[in-house]
What does this fold into?
Amino acid sequence: MTLKGNCLIAQSGGPTAVINNSISGLIKEAMRSPQINTVYGALFGIKGLLQEQIINLGNESRHNIEGLRYTPGAALGSCRYKIQDEDYERLLAIFKKYDIRYFFYVGGNDSMDTANKISILAQENGYDMSVIGVPKTVDNDLPHTDHSPGYGSAAKYIATVVKETGLDLQNILASSDVAILEVMGRNAGWLTAAAALAKHHSDDAPHLIYLPEVAFEKEKFIEDVVKTHKKLGYCYVVASEGLRVKDGSYLAAEKATDAFGHAKLGNGLAAELKNLITSRVNLKVRCNVLGTSQRSAMHYASRTDASEAYLVGRDAVNLAVKGLSGIMIMLERDDHPQYISKTSFVDLSQVANIEKTMPSNMINEDGNYVTYDFIRYAQPLIEGEISIPMEKGVPAYVKLDGYKKMHSLYRKSPAC
Amino acid sequence: MTLKGNCLIAQSGGPTAVINNSISGLIKEAMRSPQINTVYGALFGIKGLLQEQIINLGNESRHNIEGLRYTPGAALGSCRYKIQDEDYERLLAIFKKYDIRYFFYVGGNDSMDTANKISILAQENGYDMSVIGVPKTVDNDLPHTDHSPGYGSAAKYIATVVKETGLDLQNILASSDVAILEVMGRNAGWLTAAAALAKHHSDDAPHLIYLPEVAFEKEKFIEDVVKTHKKLGYCYVVASEGLRVKDGSYLAAEKATDAFGHAKLGNGLAAELKNLITSRVNLKVRCNVLGTSQRSAMHYASRTDASEAYLVGRDAVNLAVKGLSGIMIMLERDDHPQYISKTSFVDLSQVANIEKTMPSNMINEDGNYVTYDFIRYAQPLIEGEISIPMEKGVPAYVKLDGYKKMHSLYRKSPAC
It folds into this structure.
């Protein structure tokens, strides 16, 4: 079956530093594909699509399309939206109206679920359309793919911040005894583990790494910290925001409102760990919480990651025009004797809503650090840097013209 | 008076990304100065000096001395130590023992106070020694100097993070309505103000900037946030950790221990502001707290700043061997028609313990943003980037051999 018609690109979930590399790869390859006429983009993912927030990406300048390769954030706009039963009819009508025969959804687990549902919807309604999921996530928790585009850049940034703030901790007497870095990752510890890529000598930060894959034990944690501090005179802890104790409850969940309707402080994980330490032992603790800077730090992205993000975008189009549908494109590695990756694919149904957590061989026996198996896996993914055009001392990121025109109107509307 | 003898370099206070540029400039210029024989470094500032933690910087490789130019953190080790009456005799004895005729102290306000005291000590005891303060601080709060080395790099990093996390906020529907970035600066808002360098279009982040120079009004703050959110659909707030309300009390101070001796959570400023918003209006808020990464982000340092940090180190030696003493070297600017800076100097007594806060012409009338006067002042300071050698995907920072040998022994000793 060779389809001919228009193409639609959308993205969803949290952005990564390099997600727009995938968008750029998708746009450029779709533009030069004889089977694809107009290349559309939906703003704000499925949510925007349902409101027909559609732009013609063919109207964008070459400068903008190239600029996506060094611009972080969700250039098309993103959403977190679970598709509802009543949306299906509307979606199908829009696909038909715009003669969409190729639909590319860039995102993580939830987005792959959405893509899968749309693929089934089209099939069930006898509407010929190729649906391809394009992976992205800083959490690296998508299954089957060796790793996810977006992970390497966030990992490189985390490792570099740990290297730098580790020097800060080691070199000042009597300022802080313990540094705690809180890293993103609710259920998978890949990004937290990446901190270990900062360590090249035994005394270097980080010293302790706590992952959601290991049930957190408060007593053991305090013991670990005290032991390290006794040995080195300082201790650098990296911990996932999603740490849970044995009964499965989060160590630091957002608190509900109190009896007066006032919201209680949402104590973050780092603050919780700090409290655990300072309530028990006489150590000074300092917390760093990088928040959304982790997933948007294009200024220090991995070149390997950016190239692979572009590659999955480009090859997603190639697979689609070959007639494939209902799949997620993914990365495979061949790292002997040196790291090489290539694209492959897997059924969307095998990806949707499945999270890939860290395997036990990558976590040490004590459950407070990673093994060399992890280092060997993650190290190639953070290699290389990106050159970004600068303006007035900060990166000169681009905005799509279509997005600029529609964005402000849309975000201000009460419907959102 | 032309002194001949040895030189001692030390540093104190929190590090900056480029403080080691000053150390590198000091070492290289001291090495080629005919009046200076051995170039010593004291580890961990005055505190280490009092314990005779002294290394011969002449033994360091050229690679290490050059490597200081791209290595963040306190390469000599730093301390926060207020000089005591009983220390004076010991200090003088050490200066005499090592024939120190040139003493350079790299630091901020407190360090200039220490340098001033040592200068007076030497004079009163008839010991001929040139004492020069070399400025460094990310806070930019040293008086007389146009700006402080270290500020430009931290400012560039903050502005870039705001640009990137600003895109993250704008581009995702229904994830967060408000982002709050907490920035260092207890009494001076210079670094917080630097966030404004990220903004090139009216909708761009940041939208609101709160500085310690302006008494914080809770009602006004909520009004500001709601108004911005109504207009744009999102709101990016940047605030100094040292915000105070009208009576002078900090908005977010570290809490004392409770009746049981348990330390209470030290609620950060960002968490406090988040609580203020969410307890009153239905908006989702996300906090980013960069912590020590602000002052150690060499991976994104300003070239202008790094060059100037090197310059003040180099010229400090030149002033010393010309016979000057009891001064802090500083930067003057001539920015017509383009930014140029040169070194000058001021008496240490005029610097010690005086903080330079932001002048009223750089703060808008509403007290919730900066003016163009600030932009014009700060923009040239963040220009240019640094190329850093990489190893396994992260920066290959150096450690001084002398520091490596003594560091671990020293930090582990109970005396520290």
Observations:
- The longest helix of chain A spans residues 151-171.
- The domain at 151-296 of chain A is CATH 3.40.50.460 (Rossmann fold).
- The first strand of chain A starts at residue 5 and ends at 11.
